[in-house]
Amino acid sequence: MTFDLFDNLDSPDDWRGATGATEPLADGAVVLRGFARAQAPQLLADIGHVAGQAPWRHMITPGGLRMSVAMTNCGQAGWVSDRTGYRYDRHDPLSGETWPAMPAAFLDLATRAAAEAGFAGFAPDACLVNRYVPGTRLSLHQDRDERDLRAPIVSVSLGLPAVFLFGGLRRADRPARTRLAHGDVVVWGGPARLAFHGVAPLADGDHPLLGHERINLTFRKAL
Ligand code: MD3
Ligand code: FE
Q1: Pairing of strands 197-199, 138-141
Q2: pLDDT given for residue 26 in this prediction
Q3: Are 35 and 113 in contact (CB under 8 A)?
Q4: Which residues contact 147 (CB under 8 A, 6 or more apart)?
């Protein structure tokens, strides 16, 4: 056994198996460390196809601020923000076309992760894809634009590690910090579903697959 100095490298004999240990992060939140590692190259190829049809863009908040995270979507609906508010929309406002279909590997990963965390039958209809470069942050927010809040959200982290901020049900609750690294999957359900959360400004680094980027997928049952 060698020391695992290169935590972000993909090694075929990595001791974290496809179904690594589940780790409770908070009441209702389960971390599956490295769960998506083996699928990462396929996911990245699929992300390239999605962004080819529905390009990365920086959305504008209802308050008029440009988000530092670049976003796109796939699935039956996509999360959009503009001066009129936040919503799920079946069409990409940039093109007027429907969003690209959810790639099979996305759906497979999300449903397996949800089942592992106790949410058998999770049927996401939307996937928001977030892209971070060094300095990009996501301020504390709740995800509550989805119709059925009993369904969990499944998040998949790829590329550079991020410091994830996880608070309580009130914005003022001081958030805990956790590192989310390449291949980590988190299932947020139950009492964690409406917790305030965000991402600290991304630190620079050089990831073997993603270079200076981090990409996060969030699977949602939106409609
Ligand atoms: C906890 N994305 O897209 S993923 C988002 O890393 C979002 O891009 C972050 O927050 C990112 O809305 C965090 C982890 C996450 C996602 C959704 C949650 C945690 C959550 C919904 C409820 C509670
Ligand atoms: Fe969120």
Answers
A1: antiparallel
A2: 86
A3: yes
A4: 221, 222, 223
Q: Is residue 91 marked as binding? A: no
Single-letter residue type at 149: L
pTM above 0.90, yes or no: yes
Q: What is the C-alpha to C-alpha distance for residues 204 and 81, in angstroms, rounded to an integer? A: 27
Tell me whether residue 6 is annotated as binding. Answer: no
Q: Helix 40-53 to helix 104-116 angle, to the nearest 10 degrees?
A: 130
The residue contributing the CA closest to ligand 1 atom 23 is: 193
DSSP line for 66-132: BPSSEEEEEES-EEEEETTEEEEESB-TTTSSBPPPPPHHHHHHHHHHHHHTT-TT----EEEEEEE
Residues 6+ apart with CB under 8 A from 172: none
Relative to the CA of 141, which ligand 1 atom is closest? 10
- CA–CA distances in Å: residue 167 to residues 15, 152, 170, 174: 31, 17, 8, 6
Residue 190, burial from CB neighbour count under 10 angstroms (0-12, 13-18, 19+) = middle
155 within ligand 1 shell (Cβ under 6 A): yes
In 3-state terms, what secondary structure has residue 191?
Answer: helix
**pLDDT tens, position by position, 154-183:** 999 999 999 999 999 999 999 999 999 999
Residue 18 in tokens: 């496809």
Q: Where are the domains of the chain?
A: 22-220
CATH superfamily to which 22-220 belongs: Alpha-ketoglutarate-dependent dioxygenase AlkB-like (2.60.120.590)
User: Is the pLDDT score of 16 beyond 50?
Assistant: no
